[in-house]
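User: Thanks for the earlier help. One more: Bacterial extracellular solute-binding proteins, family 3. Can you show the sequence and predicted structure together?

Assistant: Of course, both are below.
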Amino acid sequence: MFSWKSALFILHSTSRYLLLFPIAFIHHSALAQTEVIVASETWAQLIYSGANGKPAGPIVDFVNKMNKVQSRYSFKFIIIPKLRLNKFFIEKRADVYPFRTTKWTEKELKLQQTKTIATSGDVYIAKKENTHGGEAVFSNIRSRKIAGVLGYHYNIFNNNPDDRYIKGNFQAELLPSNEAVVKFILSGRAEIGIVPETIIGEYMENKTIKNQLIVSKTFDSRVELSNLVRENGPISVEEMNIIISKMESNGDIKEFKKILHIGEFVN
């Protein structure tokens, strides 16, 4: 004989399993995500070790947003010393090199470019107060004492990164980092510095520095920057392009460019 007690028991038991089902489903979905290792060396204020040694900076934030626009992949950002980074990709311990160009990487890494996220480049900087009269210092750059980063390709140096060639043909100081170039110019030890617009943009947020420096209205060179995807890795170029397209549509990339000061100095 059917009773209300029996009905309540059945309802209670069924509800319990109905409640457990979505929880189990969500848990399974989270486990089903494919982990993708995004690796980079530190890059001035763009990528650095923040609180508790965790990766931080605008590019790290961009990668975190890649996790929010889809659920198929879980992107994990790690910072690797520059000298060890290539080995990580060769040994397939890293899958994506963010916001770079294959012009800067070795062919043996087998990294493939996705669609362009942004086009950016290096600009010239100088002390606002200089012997040439402000922006006139940019009028004949090849005749100036120039500071750049050792091993980098610069148009002004005919895209030849060899330090012997550069020092043999130009008045040049080659330094270990872009930060060192900015400090070199601020100290008056060179007339012209070459730095990425994204990096000088961060420095110019400091009013004290902004009052001391001027930025050229022309690029030394420009490159198309994208996420470089390891060949035969857990995510393909096509799949990464879908994620980038979503971020274009929702305004994430527009905001990213603004944060990185892209187009701020040279239109």
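User: Great, one quick takeaway?

Assistant: The chain has two domains: 30-118+224-259, 120-222.
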